[in-house]
């Protein structure tokens, strides 16, 4: 495929995913057909079906797209727990501040009773791999001797939870909830200090 055709394909994919998100939020997952998504996105049905033969495949792509930025970023090198956690924390806060992430969670929560497979896809293909990358980073820091953790799963949960509980979860419940970049940075810094104070071998 030529560079031009690759660009066109990416643009059409973005239009399809945006239209699907809008319709899933407006009408619900069950009442949204692929044909309606094609119409909303302005692409032909043949084009849509070629990329996404089923709604499940389309939703999987939405999950992958929402978490893709995090998946593409290399973890910080071990040896500096404060610097490493700051990098991870800022990336996480930025990821959670994206509208597409909020939309994805709203769709999953709204459709959970009827379509639990959406929640399974969101967890197994998005949230879990990201969580595992943070846990693995903590383990690499432990191998480097900068921290000591008895339960890396719990430590990763604590760190990420301190950030998401302020910058993300209220946005799902409180209309107009916004967190400034300065406030998000403060939240991350406090989470880093708390985690380092709890697990650092030099504190």
Task: Give a brief description.
The protein is built from 10 helices and no strands. It has helices at residues 3-27, 34-41, 45-51, 55-72, 81-96, 99-111, 116-144, 152-167, 169-173, 181-199.
How much helix is in the residues?
over 70%
For the record, give the distance between the C-alpha atoms at the N and C termini, rounded to a whole number. 55 Å
Largest sheet: none
Order of helices and strands: HHHHHHHHHH
Overall residue-averaged pLDDT value: 92
Treating each run of at least 4 consecutive H or I residues as one helix, how many helices? 10
Count every beta strand, where a strand is a DSSP E run of 2 or more residues.
0
Derived structural class = mainly alpha
**How would you sum up the global shape?**
elongated
Q: Rounded to an integer, what's the Rg over CA atoms?
A: 19 Å
- Stretches where pLDDT falls below 50 for ≥5 residues? none
Strand content: under 5%
How would you describe the overall organization of this protein?
This protein has 203 residues and is mostly helical. It has helices spanning 3-27, 34-41, 45-51, 55-72, 81-96, 99-111, 116-144, 152-167, 169-173, 181-199. The protein is built from ten helices and no strands. It is elongated. It starts with a helix and ends with a helix. The mean pLDDT is 92.
SSE diagram, text form:
Blueprint: H1 3-27, H2 34-41, H3 45-51, H4 55-72, H5 81-96, H6 99-111, H7 116-144, H8 152-167, H9 169-173, H10 181-199
Helix pairs in contact: 1-2, 2-3, 4-7, 5-8, 5-10, 6-7, 7-8, 8-10
